[in-house]
Amino acid sequence: MSNEDMSEENLPSEREHAHHGAVEPVGDPFADPGLPPHEPRRQDIDERTARRSERTVALLFTLSMIATVGFIASYVIFPIDKIVYIFPFGHVSALNFALGLTLGVALFAIGAGAVHWARTLMSDEEVPDDRHAIEASPEVREQVFADFRQGVKESQYGRRKLIRTTMMGALSLVPLSGVVLLRDLGPLPEKKLRTTAWRKGMKLINQNTDQPLRPEDIGVGSLTFAKPEGLSDDAENFQTVIAKAALMIVRLNPEDIKDKRELDWSHQGIVAYSKICTHVGCPISLYEQQTHHVLCPCHQSTFDLSDGGRVIFGPAGHALPQLRISVNAQGYLEALGDFEEPVGPSFWERG
């Protein structure tokens, strides 16, 4: 027999295909093997094992509730500046560590409980289903609802009251963590946005020289920046205080002042206005001597310091607040109180 005949003899016929010793039609090389026989779990045949799984799931949900309560309690127990040593992380914030640990445990316990519930108590029998059109027929929709009801029944949600109760408790408590986090976005402003550091009798301090200002120190047409007496540039809260209390002082000819209240609140033509723009709070630093206008460099809002600091151009919402000033017995410029309206962006006009 030739090599050609031997090779043709070993080839499968056109009607058959050899595969691991089995003969299959050539036209169907990937036949559907079907689903393997369903093997019941121990929980399916042993109620004691099922109850043990139920208690495990309930324990995880209960652990989530305890962790959530611990998350909220951490805000009360740990001060924000407390530092502790925790191996292997080193020195960390006690508050941040407690919050991360308790929230992580709360979320993990819910997830682990749900997974254990699904793997041990819910039905795990695979059911094949043919594909169908995107738009379901009434019969299919009814079948979906029937399958859902069957799934609820097989999940034993109604039967396992301990799981149901602890799961609802865990899911109800976890959102409280988000409420606490929202509260921790920062301290409530209370009246801090409406007041500044200026008080009656407080001297005006030159921000460049750190010396009290006298009327003769300010020439006509000049622009001077001032801060409240007692505020050091090295103070921890300097930026917070100066962000609202920054003051610009300009000396005008009294006859150029158009607003009567501005004239009454000034001293010999010296007027004091907030340096904070009423648009988005940028510091104003550009002064036009001939027009008495100040310009905000951020969005070009323009204010007329000879007419009550009113807006004459730009997106600013209201006039610059004016500080009422006078001269004390020692000849220094001093404030006669705080600004009468809040400084900065006009949030308060929308109240």
Task: Briefly say what this structure is.
This protein is of the alpha+beta class. The protein has 2 domains: 42-125 and 140-183; 204-350, Rieske [2Fe-2S] iron-sulphur domain (Rieske Iron-sulfur Protein), CATH 2.102.10.10.
Note the gap between the termini.
105 Å
The backbone outline, from C-alpha atoms, is: elongated
Q: If you compute it from the alpha carbons, what radius of gyration comes out, rounded to the nearest whole angstrom? A: 39 Å
CATH topology of the largest domain: Rieske Iron-sulfur Protein
Point out poorly predicted stretches. 12-23
CATH level 4 superfamily of the largest domain: Rieske [2Fe-2S] iron-sulphur domain
CATH architecture of the largest domain: 3-layer Sandwich
Strand content: 15-25%
- What fraction, in percent, of the residue positions are helical? 25-40%
Number of strand elements: 15
CATH class call of the largest domain: Mainly Beta
Write the H/E string, N to C.
Answer: HEEHHEEHHHEEHEHEEEEEEEE
Structural class, by secondary structure, is alpha+beta
Oligomeric state, counting identical vs distinct chains:
single chain
Strand order of the largest sheet: 5-6-7-8-13
User: Could you give a short account of the major beta sheet?
Assistant: 5 strands, antiparallel
**Count of distinct structural domains:** 2
- Average pLDDT figure: 86
- Individual helix count: 8
